[in-house]
Sequence to fold (249 residues):
Amino acid sequence: MGRGRVQLKRIENKTSRQVTFSKRRAGLLKKAHEISVLCDADVGLIVFSTKGKLFEYSTHSSMEAILERYERYSSAEQQLDPEGSTQQGTWALEHPKLVARIEVLERNLRNYTGDDLDPLSLRELQHLEHQIDTALKRIRTRKTQLVHESISELQKKEKSLQEQNSMLAEKLKDNEKAQWEQQENLLCLNSPFVPPPLPPPPMSSVPSLAFGSPFQVRGLMGENDQEAEPRTQPSATQIPPWMFRHVNG
Fold:
C-alpha cells in the first residue's frame, strides 16, 4: 500500500515539529547543494528556526556576494521599469532586503566572536579564519606603531628633563657661590681691623745697664717710681753737731 499524501499544516506536537524541521532542513540543504553542483548555479539559502537560530547555505561565493548580486539585479529591474512599481511597492521590497542584510551582519559579528559556528562549513570556517588573521595583522601593526610613537615621545621627554636638570644644577651652583661670596664680604665688613703686631727690636739695640744704679733702676721702673722717697744727700749749708759743741765751749 502506497504512502499517503502528507497534509501541509502546522504540527502541533513540539517534539514532532522539531524532528520534522531537522529532517526537512537537512533535505533542503542537500537539494540546494545538488542543484548548485549539477547546474553550476549560485544558490543562497537562509532558514530561521522557531527559536530564531539561523541556518544558511551558499555556494562557492559567500552569502554576502549573493545578496549584493540580488540587490543589484533588483535595482536594475526597477531602473528599467520605474513606472511599474509604486513607492509603496519599493519600500515593501526594500524592507526584506534590509532585514536580511542586518541578519547577515549580525551573524558575521557572532561568528567573529566565536559564536554560532556549528552551521558553518569547512570552507566558510577557513574564510572566517583568514579574515580574522588579516584583522589581527592590521591590529598588531597599528599597535606596534603606537608603541614606537609612545617610546619616541618618552625619549624626547627624558632628554628635555635631563637638559632642565643640568640647567637647574648650574643655577644652584652659581647661587651657592654668590651666597658664599656675600657672606664672606659681610664678615669682612663687620669684623674690626686688627693691625699685625710689630716685630720685637733686636737685642743689640737695647743699652746694657749696670744693675744697682739708681738711674738705671728709675729708668727701668715705670712712672710710679717717681713717688718713691728720694735718696738723702748731705747739704752744703748744714752744720755738723761737733761744731755746735766747739762754738758753745
Remarks:
- Strands lie at 44-48, 54-58.
- DSSP finds six helices and two strands in the chain.
